[in-house]
């Protein structure tokens, strides 16, 4: 298998970050909680439902729904693809890419055709959320300090050795843990939600590496942490309306995107999870 | 409460609070989670609480007047008090993290309102962490002026991310400022002055005011003279470094 002999020096470089005193304190208390806390399982479905991916702890599993079989992930380091709890996984809207990241500070980008890891990005901090731009050219990830980073991908090239890319900051939620990152269906906006009840809608620029400075709106109304975001396209809102859910238990809010202002439905929404397979 | 004769914190002669009872350290940790109420959204800000004479009941704040000036880290309120009489038709608010200092400003405003009927009704203060909650207080493009006077320098490089002016926070300030709105910063720490200027210069939604515009703006002179910090610096013969920038629209990007 190609690339099987690659050294792990990149991973060691990542662990050498300059921890400040507060950062070590924060990480220490998290370490103490880690033994009791289990990272929640995360699931992501391919846009055309070719496959579904599930991550539990550091274990990443992909199931090919078309051929009805498990997928073998090919990573140059061999063995487990992640060394620590995976916090975020997502398919890109164009279906060609998949990203996974978490507590081991590695963001891995996979081709959904070969399921080979085509790029690895080192994060300075643990990663809490990931997203791929609709055109598949950029991958974004949020770290535990509330910074959303972006890295550009030239295009899926199977023949190349896995890229080691450096990310640049895109935007930030000041000292908040970002729980969810989503691109709007038209790709114009990137939406980020955090634990301090806030949702920020930012214009995703043509040159994301220069930063996303133009805030379109803040969606404020949650009274607890926001844990998830999703865009839903319906006949009466084809460009998608944003739905969010969070720690204020059953409150799922629908945001009017044109004005960015809340027109929220305080409703009890029961979410049905499609049971694909009993595995 | 203000009329309580046994209360030594308020001067009997002027009705204004005595600073020595409200002393607090200059530094406050913006990362610690203090417990103060935060409005759910800008429409939840209680204007009748802050400006009771102008908004007699809580129902009045619907699209009429909105806060336009915000003094971030207002300290003992020197700038706000000066601005209040300079712009009597404009609503303004100070944001301060330190509890005691916020109380001082509250008492000061109350005392001034009592002593000067129908004046100082347009100014108020709120205890909050502006680095986290500015979008909770102000709508998009609501503010026409934002002030950052003598902010905490956070000297150590590892703490630079706690600085109130930073590339990321400028996105939020650009959001609450209307196009054409102005951001005023001043400090006596040269390195911080360079930092703030460079953050503003490098941000695509801000452009510097020209010398002529600076000379013509009556507010600019207040930056170094109206506040406690400013007066202290002047007394010690120190130098100040200011950066005053205007919020502009993002230049339309070329199709790459």
TrEMBL record, chain A:
List, alphabetically, the GO terms of the cellular component aspect. cytosol; nucleus; tRNA methyltransferase complex
Residue ranges of the region described as Disordered: 1-34
Give start-end positions of Basic and acidic residues composition bias: 7-24
Q: Where in the cell is it found?
A: Nucleus
Task: For this UniProt record, give its keywords in alphabetical order, as a comma-separated list.
Answer: Nucleus, Repeat, tRNA processing, WD repeat
**Highest taxon, organism lineage:** Eukaryota
WD repeat start and end residues: 79-120
One Gene Ontology term of the biological-process aspect is:
RNA (guanine-N7)-methylation
Question: Gene3D superfamilies given for it?
Answer: YVTN repeat-like/Quinoprotein amine dehydrogenase (2.130.10.10)
Q: What is this protein called?
A: Uncharacterized protein
TrEMBL record, chain B:
Q: Which GO terms describe its cellular component?
A: nucleus; tRNA methyltransferase complex
Query: Any idea of its EC number?
Result: 2.1.1.33
Q: Which residues form the active site?
A: 152
- Residues reported in the UniProt entry to bind S-adenosyl-L-methionine: 73, 96-97, 129-130, 149, 227-229
Top EC group: transferase
Catalysed reactions, as listed in the record? guanosine(46) in tRNA + S-adenosyl-L-methionine = N(7)-methylguanosine(46) in tRNA + S-adenosyl-L-homocysteine
Compartments it resides in: Nucleus
Keywords on this record?
Methyltransferase, Nucleus, RNA-binding, S-adenosyl-L-methionine, Transferase, tRNA processing, tRNA-binding
Question: Keyword tRNA-binding: yes or no?
Answer: yes
Drop me one GO molecular function for this one: tRNA (guanine(46)-N7)-methyltransferase activity
Where's it mainly located? Answer: nucleus
Q: Please state the pathway this protein functions in, per its UniProt record.
A: tRNA modification; N(7)-methylguanine-tRNA biosynthesis
The free-text function statement in the UniProt record for this protein reads: Catalyzes the formation of N(7)-methylguanine at position 46 (m7G46) in tRNA.
- Official protein name in the record: tRNA (guanine-N(7)-)-methyltransferase
This protein's species is Gossypium mustelinum
């Amino acid at each position: 298998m190609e690339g099987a002999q690659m050294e792990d020096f990149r991973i060691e470089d990542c662990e050498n970050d300059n921890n400040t005193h507060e950062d070590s304190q924060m990480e220490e208390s998290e370490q103490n909680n880690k033994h009791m806390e289990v990272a929640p399982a995360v699931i992501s479905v391919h846009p055309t439902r070719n496959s579904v991916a599930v991550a539990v702890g550091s274990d990443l599993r992909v199931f090919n729904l078309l051929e009805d079989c498990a997928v073998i992930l090919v990573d140059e380091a061999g063995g487990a693809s992640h060394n620590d709890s995976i916090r975020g996984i997502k398919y890109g809207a164009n279906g060609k890419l998949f990203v996974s990241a978490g507590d081991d500070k590695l963001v891995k980008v996979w081709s959904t055709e070969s399921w080979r890891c085509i790029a690895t990005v080192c994060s300075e901090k643990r990663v809490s959320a990931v997203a791929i731009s609709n055109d598949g050219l950029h991958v974004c990830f949020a770290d535990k300090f509330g910074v959303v980073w972006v890295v550009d991908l030239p295009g899926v090239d199977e023949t190349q050795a896995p890229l080691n890319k450096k990310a640049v900051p895109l935007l930030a939620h000041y000292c908040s843990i970002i729980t969810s990152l989503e691109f709007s269906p038209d790709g114009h906006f990137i939406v980020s939600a955090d634990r301090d009840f806030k949702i920020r809608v930012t214009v995703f620029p043509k040159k994301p590496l220069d930063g996303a400075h133009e805030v379109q709106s803040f969606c404020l109304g949650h009274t607890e942490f926001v844990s998830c975001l999703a865009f839903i396209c319906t006949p009466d809102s084809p460009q998608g309306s944003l739905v969010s859910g969070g720690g204020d238990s059953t409150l799922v809010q629908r945001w009017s995107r044109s004005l960015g202002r809340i027109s929220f439905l305080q409703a009890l929404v029961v979410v049905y999870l499609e049971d694909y397979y009993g595995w | 409460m203000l009329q309580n004769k046994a209360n030594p914190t308020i001067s009997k002669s002027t009705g204004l609070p005595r600073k020595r009872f409200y002393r607090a350290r200059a530094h406050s940790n913006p990362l610690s989670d203090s417990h103060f109420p935060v409005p759910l959204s800008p429409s939840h800000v209680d204007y009748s609480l802050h400006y009771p004479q102008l908004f007699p009941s809580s129902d009045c704040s619907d699209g009429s007047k909105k806060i336009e000036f915000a003094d971030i880290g207002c300290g003992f309120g020197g700038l706000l008090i000066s601005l209040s009489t300079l712009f009597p038709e404009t609503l303004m608010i100070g944001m301060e993290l330190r509890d005691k200092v916020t109380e001082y400003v509250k008492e000061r405003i109350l005392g001034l309102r009592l002593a000067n009927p129908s004046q100082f009704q347009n100014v108020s203060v709120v205890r909050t962490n502006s680095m986290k909650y500015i979008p909770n207080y102000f709508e998009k493009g609501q503010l026409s002026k934002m002030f950052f006077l003598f902010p905490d320098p956070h000297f150590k490089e590892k703490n630079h991310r706690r600085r109130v002016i930073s590339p990321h926070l400028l996105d939020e300030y650009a959001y609450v400022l209307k196009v054409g709105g102005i951001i005023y910063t001043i400090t006596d720490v040269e390195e911080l002055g360079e930092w703030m200027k460079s953050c503003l210069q490098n941000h695509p939604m801000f452009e510097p005011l020209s010398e002529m515009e600076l000379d013509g703006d009556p507010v600019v002179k207040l930056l170094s003279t109206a506040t406690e910090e400013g007066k202290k610096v002047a007394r010690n013969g120190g130098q100040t470094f200011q950066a005053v920038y205007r919020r502009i629209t993002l230049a339309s990007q070329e199709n790459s």
